[in-house]
Amino acid sequence: MIELSWGAHSDRGRRRPLNEDSFLAEPPLFFVADGMGGHAAGDRASAAAIEAFAQLRTLPLIALDDVERAYASAVREVAGLATGADAAGTTISGVAVTEQGGEPYWLVVNIGDSRTYRLAAGVLQQISVDHSEVQELVDRGEISSAEAERHPQRNVITKAVGAGSYDEPDYWFIPVAQGDRIMVCSDGLSKELDAARLAQVLGEEQSAQAAATRLVHEALLHGGRDNVTVVVVDAVQAPGGDLDDTNLDVPDEDTMPRVISVKERTGDAPIQFG
After folding, report:
1. CB 25 within 8 A of CB 55
2. Of 106, 130, 215, 250, which is least packed with CB atoms within 10 Å of its CB?
3. Which pLDDT does position 179 carry in this prediction?
4. Phi and psi for 228 in degrees, rounded to 5?
């Protein structure tokens, strides 16, 4: 048995006429999708991707195979939105609560530059890795992470759901520890607030909903240049007790390489495993 509490908030921002973000915040599924600007039907693409994952809600237990099937369905649905030469596309990032060996795990899924973070023992870690041109430059050591935030190509992503191609997402299995706080966001947040500020807000706000709402509002105060969506989920109770370290490494056999858009929802619920 684990107990979760969660919250979510979304805003179109100060410069965009339409909110192309969608999210799912309904246990055991917590995802954010960001429709791609410049492509046809970005809002419908993000909603279609979220809806594909939302179909998993009826399963008694979500496994990796189920998530992979949901992703394949998302790709088909988004591809079907293409009009003429214009291809629809979206990012998607987030977690599904699953189990390994009878213990609860976060199954993290990511494609594109929306992000999934974990705050544990007071330390914020970005679990997902951006699929973007600037991240590739960082990985090759050509620019620093700080330079990436100001790089003129920072909005160019290299993988997405749809957008005229088929790309595989990254997956991670991370053990759930009591006190974990997961934060999933579109890049409208991460491009306005740096990691230090994200960690500060997540550490100061007691409730998941308060944290999600405050982060969106701060992104707006810092410019709100894009749609911004945040989902926060807390592991209030978990079998492992309080987390006593911040190491994301777990045994090799447990790891893998790296609703619809309502504006606000909150709640808490226990999830039974086994």
Report:
1. no
2. 250
3. 96
4. -135, 130
